[in-house]
Amino acid sequence: MGDQNMENLLIIYPELLKEGWFLYLNLVWGGLIAGSFCTMLIYRLPLIIERDYNQNPDAKTNHHHENLSLAFPSSHCPECGKGIPVYLNLPLLGYLLARGKCSKCAAKIAWYYPVTEMLCVFSALLAGWLLGASPNLLPLLLLFWALITLSIIDWRSGLLPDQLTLGIIWTGLLFNSLMPSSIPYASLPQAIIGVVAVYVFLSLMNALYYIIRRRIGIGGGDIKLFAGLAAYFGWQGLLPLLFFASISGLMFFILVVLSKVVFIKATISSKESSSSNALLSEQKWGPHIALAAIIYLLLFHLSPDLLGLFVPVNNYR
Q1: What is the C-alpha separation between 32 and 17, in angstroms, rounded?
Q2: Of 75, 84, 173, 255, which sits most exposed with the smallest number of CB within 10 A?
């Protein structure tokens, strides 16, 4: 009886996904679950990397971090180390029930927990709106959620972990080999050419920048992230992606400069001034690359002719 019900469900479920309301309902709860997983990565992955590579010696001595892994221990407060009850561990709802504080020590829950979960839901709905219930939806969801995770990790710690950036590259190549005629993705040869082109072009630009300025222009993690997008969208997407990321980074730089001027006029404290200087001297490119990917996808679906300004439209499959 149970096997028969399972067979019926497997038959009915794909048909139900064709109904808009059912698709979006699944995307909402799927986005919430993904958001909860992404927050775990955002918190734990940088600590594990810093501990293992000794980039942060304090992580070695903090007893909450000594045995930390992606699977152990279970969800706990970063401040007091106490476990989080199941009902408070529900995505978004748990944050609201706890009123943004730990139920044990009253420490504030970090801002990125609810933000990440909401972004994962919104990105899932956006992907569903763009592609509908199609096999192409899954790789786009995985890309969106990885970009959200990487953006917040980069913003918080300046890291773009290889576990995620290389994962995007291999995921893009895998899907483009399994679904060679899928839109908006590329064919496998186009994807491979794109990945190689990113590594060659950006590495050469980095070397040239270092010769001129004696400093690294773009980090290795940023190059790998660009390569991951090339693995998804092929060489055709490189020029628009570079352009959109550069414009986003430039706009952010201008905003930081303007805010610094305002702070100086208001005779800000030295702490605020040093924070502003840090933003200027250490530009985090992960969020800008992620934003570029979203802009690229929106233009691809809503106004492909605009992409013709960067590459002939007939090169997009």
Answers
A1: 18
A2: 255
